[in-house]
Design brief:
Helices cover 18% and strands 29% of the residues. It is α+β, with helices and mostly antiparallel strands and 497 residues long. The strands form 5 sheets. Strands 13, 14, 15, 16, 17, 18, 19, 20, 21, 22, 23 and 24 form a 12-stranded mixed β-sheet that branches. Strands 1-4-5-6-7 form a 5-stranded antiparallel β-sheet, with no helix packed on it.
Length: 497
């Protein structure tokens, strides 16, 4: 039987009927070639279908040829992981082995990604039987070459299916293991990484150490994270779940979303970068105390939380910040009063440090200072520590909680963003914290789950860099806590409970 593959170009028709168009996905990063590839095929159950590959919109259309227009299914090219001449064993949408089965004559297997539920992504196999083996091979070559132009043991099976994807698996065993591995990587390995052209920060002439520098240039390198930590908050926020298969799917198909980043500076020098949450006071002390009980495993956090709650630490210092948007009223009229001996209030004629140019300040004894770069979804905060902070919305949520009792602190940590009147939240683009110099213990910071020492009597400065890092993920992962009514979303930069 002769091949039935047909190539059409825009405005052409099939048997007198124009080919139906599908809205182009704005997230697709693949440039279309133009024209349509069409073939009449059969399913493994011998039912006749027509498959159309729209190379302008990068969309696949599967239509059952039974005289009805109801049986029509479409997929985007950025939802296609790969095509294969042999089947890959799947178990509940997850490949069970990296080794493929025997080559099946005339059959081409499409592997599309789909959402199994509201959170988890899986693979779907769509087998298509062509009229000839050569026709099957022609479609496989065209699709495979198009995909190639796209800018742990369980997840390796996903990567091995994706054409042209080279990878190396490193099992991290300690804090900063991944960072040290990258720093010590040989030059020839760096040159083999796609998208990494040079040190973009130096090439753009921007001083990364200066907290007042303009927006940094986005590196030409995308990051993918598969959750294997204690909380997996970045993974859960970007993918809406810490499910390893979902993370692997997004990496394998090349999904992309841009994430805000916060840089931390001391003495005009960059010391750390955060893409998650920064906390001081009670949360910092819990992390510091837990380091003494690593032998207990994950339960050490609950044990240290109890010990820290009994101690109920507070730290006296000054927070200065600049709001993300101008307010219609003077924010000073809404802000709490500073406690006595405020170093900023006592400066005559100066509201803030001229070198940093912060607009507002607050001097108090704090139980918590919490800054969220992203919503920070964890098993303990399923709607996010900061539910209305976006992944890349260009703002930081800064919550300042003055000294509270042990009981009130337990209430706050249990409910978080509750109706507690001690909570004041600001949407900021930059801020700083400086502890009072007369404190013997200045405390520590919990920065993305790692300890950052607070210098005694010295200020740390925090600067937002909108959408600085590109992750393998989807914009739809931004959390929308529709079932939570205790916070009303507002355009204001100051959120009160």
């Amino acid at each position: 039987m002769a091949s039935s593959t047909t190539v059409l170009y825009p405005n052409d028709t099939v048997k007198g009927k124009a080919v139906e168009t599908v809205d182009h996905a704005s997230r697709s990063k693949i440039n279309g070639e133009g024209g349509n590839l069409i073939a009449d095929v059969t399913s493994p159950h011998a039912k006749k279908h027509r498959i159309v590959f729209d190379r302008t919109l990068n969309v696949f259309e599967f239509k059952l040829l039974d005289g009805s227009s109801k049986h029509l299914t479409t997929y985007r090219l950025d939802e296609l992981l790969c095509t294969s001449k042999s089947s890959v064993p799947l178990r509940k949408g997850v490949p069970t082995a990296s080794k493929k089965g025997a080559n099946t004559p005339k059959t081409l297997f499409f592997y599309f990604v789909y959402k199994e539920d509201k959170l988890k992504w899986r693979l779907k196999e769509v087998p298509v039987v062509f009229n000839t083996t050569s026709e099957r091979d022609y479609w496989h070559t065209i699709i495979d070459s198009t995909i190639r132009r796209i800018s742990s043991h369980n997840v390796e099976a996903f990567f091995s299916m994706s054409p042209g994807l080279r990878y190396q698996v490193l099992l991290t065993e300690r804090a900063y293991h991944a960072r040290d591995f990258i720093v010590e990587m040989p030059v020839d390995h760096w040159s083999a990484l796609d998208g990494l052209v040079s040190d973009s920060k130096k090439d753009t002439g921007r001083d990364i150490d200066d907290p007042n520098t303009a927006h940094l240039a986005t590196p030409h390198l995308r990051f993918g994270i598969i959750g294997a930590g204690s909380a997996n908050s970045i993974v859960s926020t970007v993918h809406e779940t810490n499910d390893y298969a979902t993370s692997a799917v997004h990496i394998a198909i090349g999904s992309e979303c841009n994430v805000d980043v916060c840089t931390v500076h001391r003495d005009s020098k960059l010391i750390r970068i955060s893409a998650n949450a920064i906390s001081y006071g009670w949360l910092g002390d819990v992390l510091r105390d837990s380091e003494n009980y690593r032998c207990l495993g994950p339960i050490r956090y609950q044990w240290s939380a109890l010990r820290t709650t009994i101690r109920n630490p507070t730290y006296r210092g000054t927070v200065q910040f600049t709001l993300s948007h101008k307010e219609t009223v003077d924010p000073r009229t809404k802000m709490p009063q500073c406690i006595k001996n405020c170093p900023v209030c006592e400066k005559p004629g100066k509201e803030s440090d001229e070198t940093t140019q912060y607009d507002y300040h607050f001097h108090d004894e704090f139980s918590h200072v919490i800054c969220c770069v992203i919503p920070t979804v964890t098993p303990f905060t399923p709607h996010g520590l900061a539910p209305y902070t976006g992944i890349g919305d260009g703002t930081l949520d800064l919550a300042l909680i003055p000294k509270v009792s042990r009981f009130r602190n337990m209430q706050f940590m249990r409910r978080l963003y509750s109706s507690d009147r001690t909570l004041v939240c600001y949407r900021v683009v930059r801020w700083s914290y400086q502890p009072d110099a007369d404190q013997e213990d200045p405390g520590v910071w919990n920065l993305d789950g790692e300890i950052l020492e607070q210098p005694k009597g010295e200020a740390l400065h925090f600067k937002l860099h909108p959408q600085l890092i590109s992750f393998f993920g989807r914009d739809a992962a931004m959390i929308n806590p529709v079932k939570r009514s205790f916070i009303k979303k507002r355009k204001s930069s100051i959120v009160y409970k």
